[in-house]
Amino acid sequence: MNLFILFLLILILLSLLFLIFYIMMQHRNEQERSLLERQETKNTNAQFDSILNQMQNLQKNQIHSLDAMDWVQRQVDQMANVMTNTKRRGSWGEYQLDYILSTYLGENDSIYSTQYTLPNGKIADVALHLPGRKQVLCIDSKFPMENYARMDDEENKEYYARQFIQNVKKHVDDIANKYINHATAPQALMFIPSEAIYQFICASCDFLFSYALQRHVLITSPTTLVGILFSLQASTNDFYRATHLEKIEHDLWMLKEDVRRLQERAIKANQAVETAAKQLQQVQTSSKKIASRFEGMMEGKEYHDIND
After folding, report:
1. C-alpha to C-alpha distances, 89 to 103, 130, 193, nearest whole angstrom
2. In whole angstroms, what is the distance from residue 198 CA to residue 225 CA?
3. Rounded Cα distance, 27 and 33, in Å
4. Local structure of 303: helix, strand or coil
5. Sheet containing 217-220: which strands, arranged edge to edge?
6. Under 8 Å between Cβ of 189 and 137
7. 151 pLDDT above the threshold of 90
8. Residues 18-40 pLDDT 10s
9. Closest to 90 in 3D by CA, of 143, 33, 13, 20
10. Distance between CA 211 and CA 164 in Å, rounded?
């Protein structure tokens, strides 16, 4: 009977212990679930904040993009206004001509002059100074844009093409009459600041080149003008060397003499450095002798002289 009671008590105690352990495990699981839920909530909030920031940045970028598109549209509109206005179009051609000259020839008054006034009172956009000649080669910028642009109209394309041809011929005649005379070279250049128009003339109106050459006018574009400028610069350099050969030879001999003097001075400078190094070594030897003698006198030791 006593054993039964003891066994019953042990069983009750074990049940209580199991119950306590179960309750503790449930509480721990609840804490872990709560912690996990808080972490998930935090991660969700962080992701939401990240998405919100990205949306705000996207909205800002979209605003900037819209501003950029507006700016581009304004620039395009301004360019369209330039191309449709005859005076502004002419100014653009002159600007491009000046830009090409300054880029490839620099600010060189001996090779070219802008807004050059001829004896007949006509003003050329550019006058190229030919080597060894008083006459100048004139360049005039022309931009036959209006009828060229109207050729997009398929129904009236042929009509506008004929008008374009007449425009180019008139420009050629004007250049020949204004910029070819006794004060200029027997030729002149017509600068078209549009490669597209120049290529159209090459492909569809090549007879205009023959017409221009008959009037002693050469039609050029930005690309072909650069080649002419390089040729002119090379000719100018060759002419200068040919006409200043004695001066160049004299300068070369002077340069050779300068090189000889530089070599002599370099040798003397090297000798001076070697002498200074030797004297510095002697000074160091003397300082060691003085220091050794001073230490001997202070400590009452026998002094041993140091040979130079």
Report:
1. 21, 29, 10
2. 12
3. 10
4. coil
5. 112-117, 123-129, 136-141, 184-191, 217-220
6. yes
7. no
8. 666 667 777 676 777 767 666 66
9. 143
10. 14
